[in-house]
Amino acid sequence: MFNRSNPALTRRSFIAYSGAGMATAAFGMPSFAETKTRSFSLRAAPSRAQLVPEPHPETPAWCYNGKVPGPELRVRQGDRMRIDVTNGLAEETTVHWHGLRVPHAMDGVPHLTQRPIAPGETFTYEFDAIDAGTFWYHPHQRSFEQVGRGLYGPLIIEEPNAPQVDRDITWVLDDWRLTQDAAISDDFGAAMDMSHAGRLGNTVTINGQIPESFVVQRGERIRLRLINAANARIFALDFGEYEPRIIALDGQPVAPHAAPGGRVVLGPAMRADVILDCSTATNSNVPLVDRAYRDNEYRLLDIVYEGAPLRDAAPDWDIALPDNPLLEPDMASARRHEVLFTGGMMGAMVERDMGLSQSGGMMGGGMMGMRHDGRGIWFVNGKAAEGHMLDPFLTLERDASHVIQMTNATAFHHPIHLHGHSFRVITRDGAPTEHREWQDTVLMAPRERVEIAFVADNPGDWMFHCHILEHQAAGMMGVIRVA
Hey, do 167-305 and 335-482 end up sharing a CATH topology, with the first three levels equal? Predict the structure, then answer.
């Protein structure tokens, strides 16, 4: 599917490759019975994690509460969340609640929405769990390294009337660039990563481990919540005979449907909730294969039947999720805007082929005038971001409907994330999307044009960026103001 090459490792192949370098009313939230405040504490600090099996040593990592991933924060829709975050690192940090429509001051972007949390300090985030779904949390301060060293965790908001399943399971997927002694490679911010596909690793984990198998019972129905926490790796998961049905994307319900092409595709930061009916497979041992990268397919684990059958056939329970309180954009009155992404290696060639003007100092497919700090490689509407203190490149009228046409005039995929809002993906290269899915991060292919639509109902200055974290750090980031 994708032509970038950097193979992930299974338990068996680690050795071979280990040398690879708010006001609630603003959102129209309905009232819920028995809502309450749920309090949590997170501490970001150095720790150790057994990412690869013994006899390999533990990996020095940065963790929330000493774990990779950090603890799963799980509440019910309508609850109020209060999270005390203490910084035990030797550098500043923040926490961003990815995909949650929170008030601007709670969004966790350093200097734009808050002062960074200094070493030894504690900051309290407090907001309402407006939307049910699968979300996650991570730093937005030097995220290309802080996330890459292990700082992230799942955040689950349960529906008041969730579909019936036998098990509700969260998988946080990540990949790591490990050395021979299972340490995290220190080459963060390498120019090759910044200008190409980002920091691809050599070891893939699920919930911080390399599993051999996932045990199920025949007839079991599982809700599997998939979260891609990797800096740059795209996953395209092939469940073989299990034929998963997607019921949510980026936490937002979607009409239940089979995975297109039989593969659940997740760019960095993206999520999918899928229903696995464990009566569809005839074999007792089915490999789960990642087929994202051409000529670099690999087995992630085996799905294994064990124990007595739970039932003879799949249950007939409804799997559709209730809608979240999102305002539907009015396409007839929507304001239209254009965003152009350029830069990166071979960027000038793509711009030329697409009939676009040269920009950002890109010439002849090479990198001309690249700065030594790695910035000034990627551009949003001709400008490369500098830190987080940015003037908005786009201002949207509050409570109005907007359509943003995005053009990826580069040679690489980009998962584009908008803070503070969810949006409908309405067209790809001019063709209407089948499901008009709500997302907060949309994966754009090279040379692709994508249109998104939403009501700008959350006031403030919001980050808008590529979630390949090296691309963000190297300029593919801007601010959209809602006022």
Answer: yes
